[in-house]
Amino acid sequence: MATQAAFLAGLSQLAAQPGRDRAVAPARVAVAAVGVGSAKVGVRVGVKAGTAEAKAVAQRRGVRCRASLIEPDGGRLVDLVAPEEGGRRAALRREAAELPHRLRLSRVDKEWVHVLSEGWASPLQGFMREHEFLQALHFNAIRGADGRMVNMSVPIVLSLGDAQRRAIQADGATRVALVDQRDRPIAVLSDIEIYKHNKEERIARTWGTTAPGLPYVEEAITNAGDWLIGGDLEVIEPIKYNDGLDQYRLSPAQLREEFARRNADAVFAFQLRNPVHNGHALLMTDTRKRLLEMGYKNPVLLLHPLGGFTKADDVPLSWRMKQHEKVLEEGVLNPESTVVAIFPSPMHYAGPTEVQWHAKARINAGANFYIVGRDPAGMSHPTEKRDLYDADHGKKVLSMAPGLERLNILPFKVAAYDTKQKKMDFFDPSRKDDFLFISGTKMRTLAKNRENPPDGFMCPGGWKVLVEYYDSLVPSEGSSKLREPVAA
Amino acid sequence: MATQAAFLAGLSQLAAQPGRDRAVAPARVAVAAVGVGSAKVGVRVGVKAGTAEAKAVAQRRGVRCRASLIEPDGGRLVDLVAPEEGGRRAALRREAAELPHRLRLSRVDKEWVHVLSEGWASPLQGFMREHEFLQALHFNAIRGADGRMVNMSVPIVLSLGDAQRRAIQADGATRVALVDQRDRPIAVLSDIEIYKHNKEERIARTWGTTAPGLPYVEEAITNAGDWLIGGDLEVIEPIKYNDGLDQYRLSPAQLREEFARRNADAVFAFQLRNPVHNGHALLMTDTRKRLLEMGYKNPVLLLHPLGGFTKADDVPLSWRMKQHEKVLEEGVLNPESTVVAIFPSPMHYAGPTEVQWHAKARINAGANFYIVGRDPAGMSHPTEKRDLYDADHGKKVLSMAPGLERLNILPFKVAAYDTKQKKMDFFDPSRKDDFLFISGTKMRTLAKNRENPPDGFMCPGGWKVLVEYYDSLVPSEGSSKLREPVAA
């Protein structure tokens, strides 16, 4: 990618491993605060909120954060990568190679290992045990070690099949190795807990439907094992993809360092999985203006495209990154007040449930403002002719979600193409006939047909990238790249 | 019912309307605390937690409760029945008769009016508006006027069809009358809000499945309107059924009066929708013993059969009440430390979601201990050969539920028939072959065949009631009483 250097000009060199502060053997203490009542009278077992023990637990594992930014969930940013110093990586790699039980990670599993390892899901210390899974499903929030609710709306779980479950339980194993598709050790999961994977219930409670054709379900649930395995995760080394985009994959700790370096006094996050058009840009520029008017001195935008699994008719990450580069190169967004980075999570398309995850993860990366649009993380109903979610539910649910009280929600103002001014502008209902709404489907159709959108819809360089992308598809139409037909 | 007088001997005469303390025009102040962010920066609008305004709101509407019992959710027990004094009932009845828009209540709707009117769902002031509905669906909890989360796991909503929705909105009406099946006015719903009834999403998030055959769904959702209407409820007079059981339908305020009269220092609730066998009785007796050992002086049992809608193969309420009477008459439970009353809610069969509602409602009735069994509110999966819910999830979810922190959960010890001792006893795994598990299906089959269960399984009078019930079905087999075949 020739223009990456220029694109990254606004980003400082980031230390690969910012100052750590962690204990060696966290075991499962941090998740013990909410246990399940046993036969004895009284319910909540484990660490009691507010006690010295709880405070010690909260401090054991993770990165100390600068006080000027919003505090991560649970007080400390979780960091599950073995430290380079002290030989821990080599020891963990040896152990992983020798452990009798090895679970092979799918593409999506590995993305979750990445997400967990860098603390996007703080205070989670690994794949969910059952008490965390149930809280995520029923409450979209988990009670942390300090007794407070942290938001956690999507299950972050690892599945396994029955044969492997039986083998692990027959051995009484407490640690298993996680390996990639080529059997290379990635991590060790310890103090494991195995429980049933009720797929139907998980799907119904996460998506609000069980209709066939949900992209994440087909990719990661339908053919997954009937059991889930939770535990504390320790990752051998930082997850890399070697796809030319790793430099954009800044961890929450690295983002916090960058925001601090820039003396940001407000960080506003914009989650996206589509090309940036001038309506988005207007919104982001306008948001900065509003924050300045509110008295902030240096609001910084985190332009944060999602980098994990997306459905087949979304524009792939590499093309989106090329397009975002052009947007900055051509001055549509100001590199001085913009940080572009990749959010490593897979996409659920779970609407109001998922938007909470998108927001929560950005708190951990230091954002205290979150821009939310119409129908966030939404899609068409897979079997009915309608949107799966009410377009307003995402922002409503987000504004009421437990554990997100500290985050300021910025509802998206609707932008459309103003045919009089020949530019994208905020929709003005008093002269509604002047405005043209250009849907994602319309945009894709234009780009596929090598047609141009109206002047001022998107910067020319960005549009050219889109046209190139659709051109690149023609020879491989019907190949594995396009598992679903692109909507006309 | 000939023996009701004896059965009620342990209950004092209750004042029909215990001391009230309410304002005249509560409007929607109590639900304004969690609004949805508008386009301006900042999210949570409305009454701020902890402010004097919030405190005033919390005190405006409801019954003052004795300090010795657990505080109701929201601080005050909601009471939505128009007071007898001051002519309010007559005025409301006149208004309801004259309002241009009238919604006809189904059987289940009317049960919810009953539930809401007596404050079982405190702090809800009426059928849910959208922000409450969304919080119930996504979080199983609602942020109250004081900023605290109260548990609320099932939507309490009223539906209407599209034609009626259009007529109401065309008129700009803000108040509608609620009438019964014979068009008699029951209540007025004011400051109304109409929003979409996404049935699929409601069902998926409440039940964790969308499989056809869920009893509540078939009774109350499938054929319901495509819109929901929320608002503040004012009920003309206390809801009565005139079925000979109204004397058992004690409101939360009446139950609190009774517990206070008995000087209860602990109240433990037992929710049930089945006949009481000696295993249940053992559990209840044992719980009282354990509470005494913990230092409580006078723990009182609230034996609280569910009285609203149940599925066709459950034993009907009137027969269950006859059976419960026998259990007290024959000394299986001690009337001195037992209050038997009817819980007016309809049954969802929604497992871990519903058990939270069952527990939360009992807090409002003064219970600070809640007994939870295996697979509470569970049933067989409607289309697969398995239980719909994991048998342990109910108690796990209950122990972690937001808003139920003040309630002590008492997990059910497993009782079974000890063939050596010839009585029900707690299961002892060290001599497991001595124990016989008698399922509900087995019990029903025995009763239907006029066979006797093993000695000591149930008191003889109680068993006789069951046999009589199944006898009574024979002539009407296939009639409307049995909408579903009784499982063999």
UniProtKB/TrEMBL annotation, chains A, B:
Please give the catalytic activity noted in the UniProt record.
sulfate + ATP + H(+) = adenosine 5'-phosphosulfate + diphosphate
Pathway listed? Sulfur metabolism; hydrogen sulfide biosynthesis; sulfite from sulfate: step 1/3
The record, for InterPro entries, names: ATP-Sase_PUA-like_dom, PUA-like_sf, Rossmann-like_a/b/a_fold, Sulfurylase_cat_dom, Sulphate_adenylyltransferase
Q: Which UniProt keywords apply?
A: ATP-binding, Chloroplast, Nucleotide-binding, Nucleotidyltransferase, Plastid, Transferase, Transit peptide
- What are the recorded Gene Ontology BP terms? sulfate assimilation
Its EC number is: 2.7.7.4
Pfam families assigned to the protein according to its UniProt record, in alphabetical order: ATP-sulfurylase, PUA_2
Q: Where in the cell?
A: Plastid, Chloroplast
Ranges for domain Sulphate adenylyltransferase catalytic: 246-469
A GO molecular function term, named singly, is: sulfate adenylyltransferase (ATP) activity
Major site of localization recorded for this protein: plastid
Q: Which Gene3D superfamilies match?
A: HUPs (3.40.50.620), Sulfate adenylyltransferase (3.10.400.10)
Which residues belong to any copy of the ATP-sulfurylase PUA-like domain? Answer: 70-237
A cellular component term, taken from the record's GO annotations: chloroplast
As for family, the record states: Belongs to the sulfate adenylyltransferase family.
Protein name (database record): sulfate adenylyltransferase
Organism from which the protein derives:
Sorghum bicolor
